[in-house]
């Protein structure tokens, strides 16, 4: 991972993007990490995959499978319509 100061980034953004082609670039403001420049093409398009890749999310423990969609045997639309009818009538 390369680092650039904010001044270096502002003076030569082309260099920063070339460095980002090789890997993440951290941009420092007053000596502290302030920004991260990442090439978009390398990022997964799925938000969950992005969170997993950055470490902000961890995969489920063994035996706890994560389902992206909820499944139910009840027709929720019909249940809502029935409740509306009950409340209106």
Q: What does the main sheet amount to?
A: 3 strands, mixed
How far from one another are the termini? Answer: 65 Å
Q: What Rg do the Cα atoms give?
A: 24 Å
Number of strands: 3
Shape type:
elongated
Oligomeric state as shown: single chain
What's the tally of helices?
A: 4
The amount of beta strand, in percent, is 15-25%
The stretches of 5 or more residues where confidence is low (pLDDT under 50) are none
Explain the layout of strands and helices:
Layout lengths: L1 E4 H6 L1 H10 L2 E5 L2 E6 L9 H8 L21 H13 L1
Parallel strand pairs: 1-2
Antiparallel strand pairs: 2-3
Report on this model:
- The structure is a single chain.
- The protein has 89 residues and is of the alpha+beta class.
- It has four helices and three strands.
- It has helices at residues 6-11, 13-22, 47-54, 76-88, and strands at residues 2-5, 25-29, 32-37.
- The chain has a three-stranded mixed β-sheet with strand order 1-2-3.
- Strand 2 and strand 3 (32-37) form a beta hairpin.
- The chain is elongated, with a radius of gyration of 24 Å.
- The chain starts with a strand and ends with a helix.
- The model has no long low-confidence stretch (mean pLDDT 82).
Task: Please outline what is shown here.
By secondary structure, this protein is α+β, with helices and mostly antiparallel strands.
Throw out a few tags for this protein.
89 residues; alpha+beta; 3-stranded mixed β-sheet; 4 helices; 3 strands; 17% strand; elongated
């Amino acid at each position: 991972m390369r680092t650039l100061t904010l001044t270096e980034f502002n003076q030569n953004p082309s260099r920063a993007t070339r460095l980002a082609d090789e890997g993440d670039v951290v941009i420092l403001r007053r000596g502290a990490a302030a920004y991260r420049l990442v090439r978009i093409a390398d990022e997964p398009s799925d938000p969950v995959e992005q969170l997993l890749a950055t470490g902000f999310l961890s995969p489920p423990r063994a035996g706890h499978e994560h389902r992206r969609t909820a499944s139910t045997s009840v027709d929720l639309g019909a249940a809502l319509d029935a409740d509306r009818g009950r409340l209106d009538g």
